[in-house]
Amino acid sequence: MIVAGTLTRDDGAAYSLSGTATPRVGAGVWQDRSVNGEPFYEFASTGPISRAVYAAHQYGGGRGSVQGWGLQGIPGTVLVAGDFGGPDQVHPTNFDRVKWVIDDVRARWGNIPFVVAGSSGGGRMAMGIPGRFPGLVQGCVTQLGIYDVAWFREDSKARGDNGTVAQIDRDCGGVPPNDFSRACSPSHFVSNIRDLKVWVDMTDGDPVVTPRHSQTFLSALVGLPGVQTTVRFRSGGHDPDYSWLRSAVEAALQV
Fold first, then answer.
1. Is the pLDDT reported for residue 9 higher than 90?
2. Looking at residue 131, which CATH number applies to its domain?
């Protein structure tokens, strides 16, 4: 199986996803990952394909994290894992890259329902895609997700994470909020969302992505056409719960 193509960024540089995807452990599972933080596919299915999930992981380690999430092996489902580590972690065209991958999957398997899911930085992608491209996906699962990049910078500064602050400023070409950070933030697109089932998991003491991100996202969804929400609010910090993520993704795939 060959996975190949190119996507041009807003600044004129070219993203690329190319190479031969080779089978690894388990029948019906392929992986392809190109260099420099490009998205990679992990096709995993146990029956005729009828649906798909895009698992977004940001800030590196996408392949291992998706395996850790336990999202593999959902019957009839293509699992597509996206890794946005390395340079350009916060970049508006990351949304376009996700759409490009989703379009490519549908070119292979037809216009199947899609769910986008992610935790933390990946949660930003999960929140952002439905508003950036209304109607592209049918389900959104976000856990401890970033709703606004400028707020995330404030959160990072408050806990003394100067490295993350510097990276955000570098990626955004200055101190947020600015046009670049807004174009990277789900808050900028949320009013476009329609016909979507949403699962949100948040904690009361998250110091990394403070609760206002998920709370404000949920408030913004109220009254939008065709939007249904399921929320879990729990005690804890920035503690992903991958068993919940798996169960929420399976529920979302029933759309």
1. no
2. 3.40.50.1820
Q: What tens digit of pLDDT does each residue of 222-250 get?
A: 999 999 999 999 999 998 898 999 999 99
Write out the residue range of the structural domain in which residue 165 sits.
5-252
CA-wise closest residue to 136 among 223, 54, 41: 54
Kindly indicate the confidence band of residue 12, based on its pLDDT and cuts at 50, 70 and 90.
very low
Cβ neighbours for 69, distance < 8 A, ≥ 6 positions apart: 55, 119, 242, 245, 246
Our count of domains for the chain comes to 1
Q: Which residues of 119-129 are buried (b: 16+ CB within 10 A; e: fewer)?
A: bbbbbbbbbbb
Q: Are 25 and 73 in contact (CB under 8 A)?
A: no
The pTM of the full predicted model, rounded to 2 decimals, is 0.82
Model confidence at 94, in pLDDT bands (50, 70, 90)?
confident
Q: By the 8 A CB rule, do 153 and 176 touch?
A: yes
Q: Using CB atoms within 10 Å of the CB of residue 27, give its burial: 0 to 12 exposed, 13 to 18 middle, 19+ buried.
A: exposed
Judged on CB neighbours under 10 Å (0-12, 13-18, 19+), 113 is middle
Evaluated on CA atoms 142, 80, 94, 194, the torsion sign reads: negative
**Alpha helix (H) residue ranges in 172-206:** 179-183
- Do the Cβ atoms of 224 and 191 come closer than 8 Å? yes
